[in-house]
Amino acid sequence: MAIDLNVQEINRTMWSYGEYRHVADLLRPGAVELVGRLDPEPGCRHLDVATGNGNVALLSAQRGSTVTGLDLTDEFFSDARERFAEAGVEVELHRGDAQELPFADGSFDLVTSTYGVQFAPDHAASSGEMARVLRPGGRIGMCNWTARSWTAHFQEILSAYFPSPNGHQGQPMLWGSADYLAELFGPSFTVTAERRELFYSFATAEDLVAFFENCFGPCIAAKNTISPSSRWKELRAEMVEMTEDFHTTDERGTGVPVEYLLVFAEKKGSQ
């Protein structure tokens, strides 16, 4: 498998910026639901891909799983280790590429990724690697942004100003389609999926954009590298305008609902 190291270095640098732990706090409800639905048994060999600061890894380890976390950048591992220590659990962490997992075939009973693996450039490679390291009868669980979500619109604005580098072979939001995933993982998997929502509680659209401007790595990278710098105001104004279309008040409070696909894929066969 040929990996464009330049593209991956760009991605690694981009995702290392910011205060990701604050973004991870917004994503935690999806991790809670995913782990709750998967209900891993004690001793389950669990790989969490694009683990970040360990939302899923922590929850699974607390249930007695033997958890390994992998991420393209290790910038968030110190925060993850602090969280694991406070909870009294152990998780093995690796810096690595979802497109080339450093594990043997059939090493895991469970493989997960929340809002992460879908951003790996080569979809066939990353899905193939998840399938390879999973034992027959094992399960994959994911939370993936959908094409109609606020996140998709956010990424679309960024991409309009910063086209994807060569090597980005697939669009991330395709992972938010159950039909696409069934095709991607192929006939050796049974794929089921449900549309779900997170809710980002922010009083105004401006507040939400300011939060991502200060905490989210790709957004910070865009702000730091855009040329001329005056274009940032134009990009940011588009983000606020788009976010206002999503901003609402309902029984959850005031903020932005963000749709994702909750995915379960079982590998056919028995161990």
The rounded distance between the terminal residues' Cα atoms is 27 Å
> Treating each run of at least 4 consecutive H or I residues as one helix, how many helices?
10
Using the alpha-carbon principal axes, give the shape: globular
Helix content: 40-55%
Give unreliable regions as ranges: 1-5
Query: What would CATH call the homologous superfamily of the domain at 5-146 and 166-198 and 260-267?
Result: Vaccinia Virus protein VP39
Strand content: 15-25%
What's the overall average pLDDT, rounded? 91
Computed Rg: 18 Å
Category from helices, strands and their pairing: alpha/beta
Main β-sheet, in a few words? 8 strands, mixed
> How many DSSP E strands?
8
Would you list the SSEs in sequence order as H and E? HHEHEHEEHEHHEHHHEE
CATH class of the domain at 5-146 and 166-198 and 260-267 equals: Alpha Beta
CATH topology grouping of the domain at 5-146 and 166-198 and 260-267: Rossmann fold
CATH architecture call of the domain at 5-146 and 166-198 and 260-267: 3-Layer(aba) Sandwich
